[in-house]
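Board notes (copied after class):
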Amino acid sequence: MKKTIALFLMLALVLTLTVSAMAEPVTITYAHFSGAGAQEETLKKMIAVFEEKNPDIKVDLQVTGYDDYFTKLATTVGGGNAPDVFEMNMENYLAYMLRGACADLTGLVNTENYSAGTLEAVSSDGKLYAVPMSFSTCVLIYNKALFDQAGISYPSAEWTWADIQTAAEAIRALGDDIWGFYQPISYNEFYKSVKGNGGSLLKEDYSAFTANSPENVEVLDAMIKRVRGENHVQPTAEEMAGRGDWDLFTEGKLGMIITGIWAFPTFTEKCAFDWDIVVEPGYQTKSTFFFANVNCVSPSSTKKEAAAKFADAMGSDPDIVQLRLDASWELPTIADQGKLTQYLEITPPSNRAAVFDSMDYAAAPPALKESGAASEIIGNVLSTLEMNDITAQEALDDIQSQLEDAALL
């Protein structure tokens, strides 16, 4: 009898310890920067929503301001003490992914929650290495009044750069200080635009630069001709006379502009004419920006499933999405626009759905470990082209040579 009682007590103790261990929540660490300051309370509310729905997971939030965040993260990752989940902007994400600092999340995230373009931007070789969380992008914004005065149809989803040029020439003909189009000749605009002509800055296997490919030359040549062609439709810095591109648009002197959705509040306040947007036309096919913050999971994490579940929720949980929308804190990357009625109903622009449609054509920056050095080389050359007589081929040959000499691959 005593042996039976002792055995029963032992089994009861084991069962108690087992149940206790099962009930103990997993704690994951989360390094974050974009919510520092103004949105920190919103961030904490988001995490509270996740923890309430997932009582078996606790989140240890580690917020650092942008200026110090990436230095601190590099130190923790390099020291073998990486957080389970860490936020990245796209440029830094690519550098970390190429260095093997982002875990493969394939199969751990419900990819149906996100638009195709955003998933492509955070994938490599068919594997998912980050979860999109929030974004902003650029669109084509146009002045309806100038289109009406020129007697031409408004931009449509079928437009390409050829259509932009035709419309821009018609608008330019309206007056000496009326301009058809504005898109700066810059690193960001160039790497995005060449994708729409089948071009790129790198081979698919990252083994070599392809800056001076024929596809890229075509795109840059078109950009240059807009500014210094015989019938140029885009003003030079001298012709802008100290005004910015937004100034020209709000003054009613610019027909079309490629710029970010963050311009909407300013244009709503200052434009005395009707304006709207479409997904940015591409050289041949569409290609748009993906300014985004994403969440990555450390390959060294022992809690990958919990970490991936949290990263997924931060990008797609309906209640977390609503908190982001209520706080006007960038935009969620979810595919289901039905959940975004609050944002879509704000006018102008009337075609606000184009903001989300743009994500299907998102172009990530070139995947480089030393992205800053490459962008500086390319940007320095492109910035001279407005007033420089060299051809697109000569400029890109120069860029190609500098990139190869810098040994950035």
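Comment from the instructor: The chain has 18 helices and 14 strands. The chain has a mean pLDDT of 92.
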